[in-house]
């Protein structure tokens, strides 16, 4: 006989029954944490005061107060809040926190971040106060006044650094995460912030060594070539050489040996921001097959778009515009506007708190598309699964920022070879049964052991849409 | 042909999938009173701790069932009439079947403690329990968990994640040492205390005390100590859930008695997974396996038999894994908690108490491996044990089995040295 209490039970998934009203952290803050948050608040205050025209604006004191003070405060806060915890996975209460689970705070964060990008791209004049506050640093690095891109680069680098420190603390038991985080911090600070700005000081073209075509799409445009050539010295030639080499040589070779992670979660700035500031929201990525289908269509469409644009621009420039006239320029403009600005910036970062940290990388980035094709068909990288140890809990899928249903493979004991996997290693970190391991196999053939072949898997996934 | 399966857990689902593979046209109905869709029971704790939402714990997307043409029926079965091949459903009429698989899982043990039905006293097995826990933690400050097994420590971790005080009563003199060898068990004691839990060893529950309104107010231990608490977690093991088959003429022992092809004594009625007790010939004890992977394996074989194949269950080489707070544990083969005559125990533990390895040999042949704070490859360990590799071979090839993430410290060298010395 089944007891009456059991028969009464009626669990409705739609009503969940397990959701709680979002709650604030009920752990009281320690004095140290209060002080560090105080520093952040003070910094914000200093920022607002200067926006309103305080004479501090444009001075070093003003700069330090508005940018460095809150950065120190936030880093200190992350350090303090993790330092006394036992090293391990720190995902308690993620689904109960409004900011992290699309509650009202999450929406506010999304709107603020999206708003910032809209101002940045289309109404930079409203950021004028902020831009002026960065003049001292800009003067030091570039020798000239700042523009909105300098402000943007600075905030970006600060975000990667501060949240990088958070990653260090959160994953201090995991050396893969620590090294990877150090790597993205290094590439952002050095190659994507200091070097390009210092190049400006030497009257050289601003060049980002860590971005290549097709992500930095204009690096292989004819206009960039002529611009780099104009700079006279060999430096411009070197930039052209570097760009070609990275796109056509380094990309396939490194991806063959290490998978696309060598770029996406170790070097790339977009990836760097996603892996640091985006980390708290990684669980929001959509894991459904429907999302996967949209992803495949979109990302490859963007790739085709940028390839066509680039080819047309070259045909155009070599025929002096006689074949396509101004069409190629229109394409270039569209790409810059819809993909370069709206997709990669506004949606890509602005929607972190709503759609997870890798919206751009997953649905839009043409570089990811190319790397993904190599990864899927010609790479030694794969995630192997540990026999029958998987108990289908779903942590891996939940915390995959690329929305890969890792569990679907793990519970069958199959290797995971997905073009979108950026090799962040978080699935392996969160797995409570030690089932997943990122590996560079000996050859690219044996990685399909116990796993679907790419073509079969592809056909299968279409059949199952 | 209509197959009815009671229970949509690991076992029921594995069976349904296998039957569908072998018999594309048969009708399959997967019945559960607990949830519409199959979910991962071991993930219950992560829902409560806010790592995942309920829907994240579903191993298959909802459209999977439609694609595979497996009918899902949300209902409690209240009666099995195997003579007329008919099930009675609570408030949902009746269902006839041609073949029936019972995969009703386990239920928490209750030992008739005084006060065990008070409000705030609960076990942890299913969504009903999880829901009670959400109710019970409201305004609670201290919980007492009774029973030092895998579910007990999970429940302790869950409640602890809400910043509540947790007292953990363990009957043995070290956590789970009726399964784990002393050293591993002691590593976990240390972890539990380091997390700030109040671990009381060699302590048993005597009585649960309540208030006028029927809510629990505290417990009394066998040592006469009274502990105030608002929640009591009863996690003193689980037993096969045989509620449904009692008095139906289907034989039960501790579980539903089946042969190694999962047939019960009733025609066309099968049972598998946690609820089944495999009858063993001779003097050996009957086998009851209550873990996730055995559920999957048993379900698969039961599915084959139901679909008309001639399969018998081969449990293979035992393995399992768990996580105690942040300490991962894996075991392969035969590792008993106390030294066994004729077996040789080699144990290494890192001085930081975060990593350990144990290898058990018999006549220099490796028969069991335990690792804590290390990840080892299932396939490799299994192969070693199956192929009866010698200790020397295993030690020389230890690296091959390491499954830790890249850049992690490797201890194989040290372990090898230590064990070679010990063995010499
Ligand atoms: C908190 C927790 C953690 C665990 N962690 C692990 C782990 O880490 N590793 C591991 O290997 N195992 C773990 N287990 C054990 C594992 O979950 C079980 O071994 C496994 O779920 C058994 O599967 P099953 O399909 O046999 O039974 P169950 O999963 O119990 O499924 C039986 C289903 O049948 C339903 N049912 C019962 N009676 C009726 C009826 N009369 N009418 C309709 N439906 C009915 C039940 O409601 C239930 O949904 C854990 C269990 C718990 C509770
Ligand atoms: S599959 Fe794992 S490693 Fe790859 S992107 Fe997802 S979480 Fe990162
Ligand atoms: S996190 Fe690990 S155990 Fe859980 S579903 Fe993923 S691979 Fe399986």
How would you summarize this macromolecular structure in one to three sentences?
The complex is a heterodimer of chains A (465) and B (424). Chain A has 465 residues and is mainly α.
Radius of gyration of chain B in whole Å, from Cα?
Answer: 23 Å
Biggest sheet overview of chain B: 5 strands, parallel
Share of residues in helices of chain A: 55-70%
Oligomer: heterodimer
Which strands sit side by side, in order, in the main sheet of chain A?
1-2
CATH top-level class of one domain in chain A: Alpha Beta
Q: Uncertain regions of chain A: pLDDT < 50 for 5+ in a row? A: none
* Uncertain parts of chain B: none
**CATH superfamily caption of the largest domain in chain B:** FAD/NAD(P)-binding domain
Biggest sheet strand order of chain B reads 3-2-1-7-19
At the third CATH level, what is the topology name of one domain in chain A? Alpha-Beta Plaits
What would the principal axes of the Cα set say about the shape of chain A?
A: globular
Please give the number of β-strands of chain B: 25
Order of helices and strands of chain A: HHHHHHHHHHHHHHHHHEHHHEH
Level-2 CATH architecture of the largest domain in chain B: 3-Layer(bba) Sandwich
How many β-strand stretches of chain A?
A: 2
Secondary-structure-derived class of chain B = alpha/beta
Helix content of chain B: 10-25%
Keywords:
heterodimer; A: 465 residues; mainly alpha; Alpha-Beta Plaits; two-stranded antiparallel ribbon; B: alpha/beta; FAD/NAD(P)-binding domain; Enolase-like, domain 1; 3 domains; 5-stranded parallel β-sheet; 28% strand; globular; binds flavin-adenine dinucleotide; binds iron/sulfur cluster
Verbal overview:
Chain A is 60% helix and 2% strand. With 465 residues, chain A is mostly helical. In chain A, helix 13 packs antiparallel against helix 14 (327-350). The two termini of chain A are 42 Å apart. In chain B, helix 5 links the parallel strand 10 and strand 11 (165-169). The mean pLDDT of chain B is 96. Chain B folds into three domains: 2-107 and 239-306, FAD/NAD(P)-binding domain; 121-236, 3-Layer(bba) Sandwich (FAD/NAD(P)-binding domain); 319-423, 2-Layer Sandwich (Enolase-like, domain 1). The longest helix of chain B has 15 residues, at 292-306. At the A-B interface, helix 1, helix 8, helix 18 and strand 2 of A face helix 2, helix 4, helix 7, strand 21 and helix 8 of B. Residues 390-396, 406-407, 410, 431, 433, 435-436 of chain A line the site of one iron/sulfur cluster.
């Amino acid at each position: 006989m089944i007891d009456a209490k059991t028969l009464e039970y009626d669990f409705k998934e739609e009503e969940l029954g397990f959701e709680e009203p979002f709650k604030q952290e009920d752990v009281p803050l320690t004095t140290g944490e209060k002080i560090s948050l105080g520093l952040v608040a003070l910094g914000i205050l200093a920022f607002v005061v200067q926006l309103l025209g305080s004479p501090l604006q444009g001075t070093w004191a003003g700069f330090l107060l508005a940018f460095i003070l809150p950065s120190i405060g936030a880093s200190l806060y992350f350090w303090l809040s993790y330092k006394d915890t036992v090293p391990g996975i720190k995902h308690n209460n993620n689904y109960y926190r409004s900011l992290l689970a699309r509650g009202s705070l999450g929406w506010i964060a999304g709107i603020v971040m999206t708003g910032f990008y809209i101002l940045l791209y289309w109404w930079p004049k409203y950021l004028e106060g902020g831009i002026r506050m960065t003049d001292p640093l800009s003067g030091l690095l570039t020798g000239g006044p700042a523009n909105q891109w300098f402000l943007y680069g600075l905030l970006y680098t600060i975000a990667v650094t501060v949240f990088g420190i958070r990653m260090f603390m959160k994953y201090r038991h995991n050396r893969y995460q620590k090294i990877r985080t150090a790597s993205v911090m290094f590439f952002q600070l050095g190659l994507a912030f200091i070097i390009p700005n210092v190049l400006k000081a030497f009257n050289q073209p601003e060049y980002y060594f860590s971005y290549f075509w097709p992500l930095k799409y204009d690096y292989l445009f004819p206009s960039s070539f002529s611009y780099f050539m104009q700079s006279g010295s060999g430096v411009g030639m070197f930039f052209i050489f570097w760009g070609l080499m990275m796109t056509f040589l380094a990309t396939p070779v490194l991806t063959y040996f290490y998978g696309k992670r060598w770029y996406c979660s170790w070097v790339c700035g977009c990836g760097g921001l996603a892996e640091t500031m985006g980390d708290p929201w990684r669980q929001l990525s959509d894991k459904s097959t429907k999302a996967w289908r949209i992803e495949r269509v979109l990302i490859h469409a963007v790739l085709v778009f940028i390839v066509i644009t680039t080819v047309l621009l070259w045909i155009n420039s070599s025929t002096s515009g006689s074949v396509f006239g101004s069409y190629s320029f229109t394409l270039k403009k569209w790409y810059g506007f819809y993909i370069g600005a709206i997709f990669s910036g506004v949606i890509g970062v602005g929607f972190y708190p709503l759609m997870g940290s890798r919206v751009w990388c997953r649905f839009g980035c043409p570089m990811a598309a190319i790397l993904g094709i190599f990864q899927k068909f010609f790479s030694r990288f794969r995630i192997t699964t540990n026999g029958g140890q998987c108990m289908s809990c779903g942590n891996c899928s939940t915390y995959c920022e690329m929305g890969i249903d890792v569990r679907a493979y793990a519970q069958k004991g199959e290797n995971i070879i997905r073009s979108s996997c950026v090799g962040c290693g978080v699935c392996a970190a969160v797995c409570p049964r030690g089932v997943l391991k990122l590996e560079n196999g000996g050859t690219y053939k044996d990685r399909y052991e116990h796993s679907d072949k790419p073509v079969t898997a592809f056909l299968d996934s279409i059949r199952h849409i | 042909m209509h197959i009815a399966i009671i229970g949509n857990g690991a076992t029921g689902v594995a069976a349904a999938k296998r039957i569908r593979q072998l018999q594309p046209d048969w009708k399959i109905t997967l019945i559960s009173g607990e949830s519409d869709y199959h979910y991962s029971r071991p993930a219950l704790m992560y829902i409560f701790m806010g790592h995942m939402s309920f829907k994240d714990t579903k191993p298959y997307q909802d459209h999977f069932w439609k694609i595979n043409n497996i009918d899902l029926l949300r209902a409690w079965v209240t009666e099995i009439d195997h003579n007329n091949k008919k099930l009675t459903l609570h408030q949902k009429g009746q269902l006839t079947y041609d073949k029936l698989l019972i995969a009703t899982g386990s239920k928490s043990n209750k030992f008739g403690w005084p006060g065990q039905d008070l409000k705030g006293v609960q076990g942890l097995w299913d969504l009903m329990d999880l829901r009670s826990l959400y109710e019970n933690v409201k305004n609670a400050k201290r919980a007492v968990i009774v029973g030092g097994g895998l579910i007990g420590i999970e429940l302790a971790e869950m409640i602890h994640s809400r910043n509540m005080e947790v007292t953990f009563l363990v009957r043995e003199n070290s956590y789970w040492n009726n399964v784990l060898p002393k050293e591993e068990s002691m590593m976990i004691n240390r972890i539990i205390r380091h997390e700030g839990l109040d671990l009381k060893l060699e302590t048993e529950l005597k009585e649960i005390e309540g208030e006028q309104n029927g809510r629990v107010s505290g417990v009394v231990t066998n040592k006469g100590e009274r502990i105030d608490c608002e929640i009591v977690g009863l996690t003193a093991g689980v037993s096969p859930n045989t509620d449904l088959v009692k008095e139906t003429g289907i034989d039960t022992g501790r579980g539903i008695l089946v042969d190694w092809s999962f047939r019960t004594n009733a025609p066309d009625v099968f049972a598998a997974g946690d609820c089944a007790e495999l009858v063993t010939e001779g003097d050996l004890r009957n086998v009851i396996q209550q873990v996730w992977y055995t559920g999957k394996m048993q379900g698969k074989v039961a599915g084959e038999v139901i679909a008309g194949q001639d399969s018998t269950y081969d449990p293979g080489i035992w393995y399992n894994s768990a996580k105690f707070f942040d300490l991962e544990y894996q075991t392969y083969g035969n590792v008993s908690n106390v030294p066994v005559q004729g077996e040789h125990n080699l144990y290494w533990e890192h001085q930081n108490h975060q990593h350990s390895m144990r290898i058990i040999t018999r006549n220099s042949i490796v028969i069991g491996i335990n690792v804590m704070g290390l990840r080892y490859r299932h396939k490799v360990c299994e192969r070693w044990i199956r192929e009866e590799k010698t200790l020397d071979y295993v030690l020389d090839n230890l690296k091959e089995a390491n499954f830790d993430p890249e850049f992690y410290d490797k201890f194989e060298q040290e372990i090898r040295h230590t064990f070679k010395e010990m063995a010499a």
